[in-house]
Write a structure and sequence with these properties.
Elements: H1 2-11, E1 15-20, H2 25-32, E2 38-42, H3 50-62, E3 68-72, H4 78-86, E4 91-94, H5 100-110, H6 132-138, E5 144-149, H7 152-156, H8 158-162, E6 169-172, H9 174-180, H10 190-205, E7 210-214, H11 220-226, E8 230-235, H12 236-261
Parallel strand pairs: 1-2, 1-8, 2-3, 3-4, 4-5, 5-6, 6-7, 7-8
Length: about 260
């Protein structure tokens, strides 16, 4: 699926994904059973370890669909990034990319020498060495690199970031971006919408896709109209909260009706 996802990003067709915060292979597998183009596994704001990431990736690959695995890493850290790629995932999403120089450093850490600085070693991505030479020669074509724009500095430099060779897509991080603009959670605020428009325009001017997180599915049509090429549609924890709340509400209504009839 890695090469298919890379091709899909290059074609800028509408892609869908779902967000997994719970460090569980089961949750990852169930999420991948739906026809999402990829499952985003968050390790920035979770306690999920790299060993669990590997098992979650295996679970996604074992699911009946063809979803890829994209890991949202904790930071633009070349050591962690190379270890994630050695697992053989379909891509990485990196938070807080604020300058073109940071984007270039990110790309360098993902490319093998002589084009970059990624350490060379056999691992799961190269079938534990069985496909070592071919993988090293073609690694850049097996994963996508997504840069998150979510600060005022990142917004000011978004055009230069989008133009960096090796950045496959931009991602507008709505929570941090709205917070940085002092309109946290105000998704219809003019300042926030203008920022989102600028990120979309910068990506498209550079010929790369741009995505965002849509916690509420009701917001998806507006983001499509705004020009986003891919959306991460909801989070596992949010769905659990909402479904549990709905189930409890239905039960409470039934109990109230039953006790009123007595």
């Amino acid at each position: 699926m890695s090469k298919n996802l890379k091709t899909a990003f290059e074609e800028q067709r509408f892609l869908s994904a779902t967000w997994v915060s719970i460090g569980s292979p089961t949750v990852a597998e169930v999420s991948a059973a739906n026809p999402f183009d990829f499952v985003l596994v968050d390790t920035e704001h979770t306690t999920t370890t790299l060993e669990t990431v590997e098992d979650m990736h295996r679970a996604i690959e074992a699911a009946p669909g063809e979803s890829g695995t994209v890991i949202r890493v904790p930071w633009n850290d070349p050591v962690y990034l190379k270890r994630v790629l050695d697992v053989g995932v379909s891509g990485v999403m990196v938070p807080m990319i604020d300058t073109a120089e940071q984007a270039e450093s990110l790309v360098d850490s993902l490319r093998y020498p002589p084009r970059g600085e990624r350490g060379i070693a056999s691992g799961r991505a190269s079938d534990y060495g069985a496909d070592f030479r071919s993988y090293v020669e073609n690694a850049e074509e097996t994963f996508v690199t997504i840069a998150q724009i979510e600060t005022e500095e990142g917004l000011e430099n978004v055009e230069e970031i989008a133009d960096v060779d090796g950045i496959d897509a931009l991602f507008a991080g709505p929570a941090d971006l709205s917070g940085a603009l002092d309109v946290f959670g105000q998704w219809e605020h003019e300042r926030f919408l203008d920022a989102m428009d600028r990120i979309v325009e910068a990506a498209h001017a550079a010929g790369i896709p741009v995505g965002t997180l849509t916690v509420s599915p009701d917001d998806a049509p507006e983001r499509v109209e705004q020009g986003f090429d891919f959306q991460i549609l909801g989070k596992d924890t949010t769905y659990l909260l909402e479904r549990n709340e709905r189930a409890l509400s239905i039960y409470d209504e039934a109990v109230e009706a039953a006790t009123t009839d007595e």
